[in-house]
Amino acid sequence: MAGKFCVSLTNAKNDPDRATVGFVIANAAAGSDQETLVFLSTEGVRLAVEGYADDIHEEGFSPLKDLMTNFVEAGGTVWVCSPCFKRRALDEGALVKGATIVGGAKLVEFLASGAPCVTY
To answer: What is the four-CA torsion angle of 8, 9, 10, 14, rounded to 10 degrees?
Structure first.
């Protein structure tokens, strides 16, 4: 891969436009030969729960569920903030395919190499 790229996603149904655009950008990065990471934190962690994103579809974009599936199938990585996930008492057994719960140190390690990061 040519480089690394990170999308930090802090929104879900509270702002479906940002959640959708975050995954649009992540797909573009993954399709541009970048080792791409989506880091879900705060409300964004809800996207990691199977079925949660199924009804999010912003006009002019593909359904969020499809964007998420395509991202993982393109080799993208989805990390889920452990404290944020636990704070919301979400089910670790119901994670979407490709999602992994991690601590903040993993994100710092990824970014420490100089990877750019955008936030939605």
So the answer is: 160
CB 49 within 8 A of CB 88: no
pLDDT given for residue 1 in this prediction: 43
Fold annotation for 3-119 = Hypothetical Protein Ychn; Chain: A, (3.40.1260)
Q: What is the DSSP annotation of 2-36?
A: -EEEEEEE--STTSHHHHHHHHHHHHHHHTTTEEE
Spans of all domains in the chain: 3-119
Q: Quick: pLDDT tens for 51-83.
A: 999 999 999 999 999 999 999 999 999 999 999
80 has which bridge partners? 40, 101
How far lies 54's CA from each of 48, 51, 58, 59, in Å?
11, 5, 12, 15
- Contact call for residues 66 and 43 (beta carbons, < 8 A): no
**Helix 64-73 and helix 16-30, axial crossing angle in degrees, nearest 10:** 20
As to burial, measured by CB atoms within 10 angstroms (0-12 exposed, 13-18 middle, 19+ buried), residue 82 is middle
